[in-house]
Amino acid sequence: MEEVGHLKYRANAIRQDIIKMISNAGSGHPAGALGMADVFAVLYFHVLNHDPKNPSWEERDRLILSNGHICAARYSAMAHSGYFPIKELKTFRKIDSRLQGHPSYEDLPGVESSSGSLGQGLSIAVGMALTAKLDNANHKVYCILSDGELDEGSVWESINAANKWNLDNLIVILDRNNIQISGDTEKVWPLNPLRKKFEAFNWEVLDVDGNDVMKLVGVFDRVNHLKGKPIIVIANTVPGKGVSFMENKAEWHGKPPAKDQALYALKELSVKLRKIEDDF
Amino acid sequence: MTSEQKATRQGYGDALLEIGENEKIVVLSADLSESTKTNLFEEKYPKRFFQCGVAEQNMVGMAAGMALSGKIPFVSTFAAFVPNRVLDQIRVSVCYNDANVKFGSTHAGLTVGEDGATHQAMEDIAVMRALPRMTVIVPCDYEETKKAVAQAAAIKGPVYLRLGRNKVRAMTNKETPFHIGKAETFKNGKDLTIIACGVMVKEAMKAAAELERHNISAEVVNCHTIKPIDKDKILDCAKRTGAIVTAEEHQRYGGLGSAVAEVVVENYPVPMEFIAMNDSFGESGKPEELLKKYHLTSDDIFSAAKQVLNRKKK
After folding, report:
1. Cβ of B215 under 8 Å from any chain A Cβ?
2. Which residues in chain A touch residue B64, judged by CB atoms under 8 angstroms apart?
C-alpha cells in the first residue's frame, strides 16, 4: 500500500506511458485513459489486494475494466505493478502483442475479463461478486465504468441485479468525465441526475474528485466500512488530464497525438513530475 | 426404441437435477423457470439457482462472470431470446473470454406452434455456429438431451443446447451411444444419406421407411452436434452413398445443411438437397400444421431424396 506522494508519482508515470503507447501505436484512446490515471494508480498501488506474480490467486480482488478502450492506463499500471515487463508496453496494439487494443482475458494474465463492447462489464462483475458471496469469499469486485457507457440499457439491468442480491462486495468506479465520442454526454444522451438514479436503485453513492489522489485514497478507505448495498464512487475526472491541449476536449476520445504533440505532452508531464518530486 | 413421448426441455430439467450434485453447477433463468423445467433444479438447489428476471443481457454477462470465477453456469430461457437478443454478450463476454457457460435454450423452432413467428427461433444454429469456441448441439429426444447436458457440463468452454417445447417420440434409449462431435447412424442404406437433427430425425426415419417401400435404400444419420461437425462421418457417407439430403427445423442458411455442405464441397462434392425453412418467418398454428405448411415433413424429405437421386444419376 503506497503513500499519497508515491501515488502521484505513479499517476504521472502512467500518463507518460499512455502518451508514449498511443503515439507509438498510431491509434488509441488518450482522453479517458489520462483522466483515469489517478484512479488506476490508487487502485493498483493502494487499494487492490493482489499479487502480480500470481495473477490467478483465488483471494485477489477483481478489477473489471468495462470501458476497455482506456486500457492503456490499465496496462501501464499493471506493468509498473510487476505483471509484465514495462518494455512490453511498446507492443501495445501491434501484431502478436498481448496488449490488445481492447483488453483480452486470454492473452494477458491479470485482465479479469475481455472488454471493448460497452455495457457488459458490470454484468460480469455482478456474476463475480455473487459467486464470491455464494462461496463465502472475502475478496471485493471493483468495476470501472465510463459515463457514456451508461447509455447502454444492459448496464441498468446489472445495476438492478446488484441491488437484488445486495452485493456490498461490489464497488463501481464511474468515470464521470462528461464527454463521449460525439461530445457532451448530456447532449448525446442525458444521464443526470446520476446520484438520484443510483440512489433510486438502492446503491450507496459517493462522489469524489477523480483527479485528486489524496481524496481518492480517502474515499476508498470509506468504502471499506460500508455494508449492505452495492457501492458506486462517482469519480469526477477531467478527460485528457495532465496534457493541456487534450483536457476537456471530446476530439481526443479516440485520436493519437502526432509525434510533436506527444513530445510536447511528455514535456508538460515531466515538468509536473519535477513538482511532485519537489513536494515529496 | 420406445414409444415414450417426452420433451427435450424436460430432459434438460431432469439432467440438471441429476448433475446438480456438482457444487460448481449454477442455473440462471430469465423468468422462465417452469417453461425451461429449471424449476426442478430451483426446488432442490435453491442457493445455486438465480432468478434473473426478463433481463437476458445481464443474465448472460452474469453467467460469464460466474464462469470466470469457477462455476459452470447453465443459462436458461427461450431460443428466441438467447442467442437472438444477446449475441454481443455471448460473443464478447462468453466466447472471447472462453467462459465455461452452457446455454439451454428451449422452445426453439417452428414447433413452438401457436405463439407464432416472434417465438419461433429459426436462425439460432447459424448465429451460434458462427462464434469461435462455441459448441452447438441439437438433441433429437429426451434421452439424448440428458446425455448432451451431462457431457456439456463435463467439457470446458461454451456450449449451446437447442431444445424444443413439445413432447417428441423417443428415437434413442439409455444405451444409444452419444458423444459430442460424433454423428450416429440410425439406419443403414446405400443409395443416399439423410442427415438430420432435432425433430427432423423422426421425419428422416419415416421418410427412409417410405423410400424403402420404393426400393430406395436410404441411410439416416443423426447429426446432433452441428459444431464441431463430424467431418469424417459426413465424408464417409458422401463416398459410400454419393448423395445427401439434410433436414433441420431451421433456416436454410447457416444451419446443419450449410455445415454439411461446407464439408462436402471442400472435400468430396456430391449432389445435396436441403430440407429447411425457406428464408421466411413462421406463424401461429399447430406444430404439425406448421411443419406441413413450411415443408419440413417426411414427405418433403422423400421428394428431396428422389430429386437428389436424379441428380446423382446424371
Report:
1. no
2. 113, 123-124, 127
Q: What is the mean pLDDT of residues A228-249?
A: 97
- Annotated active-site residue in B42, B56, B144, B219: B56
| Sign of the torsion formed by the C-alpha atoms of B241, B244, B245 and B246 | positive
Topology of B5-169 in CATH? Answer: Rossmann fold (3.40.50)
Does residue B256 surpass a pLDDT of 90? yes
Q: Please, what sign has the CA dihedral across residues B75, B78, B81, B87?
A: positive
Residue of B47, B93, B98 with shortest CB distance to A123: B93
Whether the predicted pLDDT of A1 surpasses 80: no
Selecting from 3.30.565.10, 3.40.50.920, 3.40.640.10, 3.40.50.11260, what CATH number does the domain B184-313 have? 3.40.50.920
Q: B96 CB contacts (<8 Å, ≥6 apart)? A: A104, A105, A106, A114
Contact B154, B123 (CB under 8 A): no
Max intra-chain CA distance, chain A: 53
What is the DSSP secondary-structure string of B15-29? HHHHHTTSTTEEEEE
A195-223 pLDDT, tens digit per residue, is 999 999 999 999 999 999 999 999 999 99
Q: Which residues of A touch B98 (CB under 8 A)?
A: 105-106
Residue B66: which of A117, A122, A131 has the nearest Cβ?
A131
Domain count across chain A: 1
Residues B65, A158: C-beta atoms closer than 8 Å: no
Instruction: Give start-end residues of each CATH 3.40.50.920 domain in chain B.
Output: 184-313
pLDDT of B12-39, one tens digit each?
999 999 999 999 999 999 999 999 999 9
Chain B segment 3-32 residues within 8 A of A by beta carbon are: 26
- CB spacing of B62 vs A132 below 8 angstroms: no
| CATH assignment at residue A52 | 3.40.50.970
Residue A280 confidence (pLDDT) above 80: no
Select the residue from A100, A102, A124 to test the B interface by mutation, using most B Cβ atoms within 10 A. A124
pLDDT above 50: residue B47:
yes
> In this predicted structure, what is the pLDDT of residue B57?
98
Range B236-250 average pLDDT:
98
Query: In the structure grid, which three cell numbers stand for residue A188, read together?
Result: 448525446
- Per-residue confidence (pLDDT) for residue B3, from 0 to 100: 58
Eight-class DSSP state of A43: I
Q: Which of A120, A138, A160 to mutate to test the interface with B (most CBs of B within 10 A)?
A: A120
Cβ-based contacts of B58 with chain A (< 8 Å): 123, 126, 154, 157-158, 160-161
The per-residue pLDDT for B1 is 47
